[in-house]
Amino acid sequence: MIFEQIIDESDVITTFVVNLSKFVSSIAVLGLTGNESLQGAHSEYA
């Protein structure tokens, strides 16, 4: 019983970490594309 509970908790933690990393990477991608478009706009107006 205890062993199963540990496995369940580790699964929850793993799922959380995977979702968190996906979330962070998607934010990073959005930030990078946003920065590139801003730099492009600046270079066009400069």
Q: Could you explain how this protein is built, in words?
A:
Helices cover 96% and strands 0% of the residues. The termini are far apart. It is mostly helical and 46 residues long. The protein contains one helix and no strands.
Total of DSSP H or I helical runs spanning 4+ residues? 1
Based on secondary structure, the structural category is mainly alpha
Report the uncertain regions: none
- Described by the principal axes of the CA atoms, the overall outline is rod-shaped
Compute the separation of the termini in Å: 67 Å
- Radius of gyration from the alpha-carbon trace, in angstroms: 20 Å
> Which band does the percent of strand residues land in?
under 5%
Helix share bin: over 70%
Average pLDDT for all residues: 79
Main beta sheet, described? none
Count of DSSP strands: 0
What is the string of SSEs from the N terminus onward? H
Task: Summarize this structure as a short list of keywords or feature phrases.
96% helix; mainly alpha
Summarize the structure.
This protein has 46 residues and is mainly α.
Layout: helices, strands, pairs:
Layout: H1 2-45
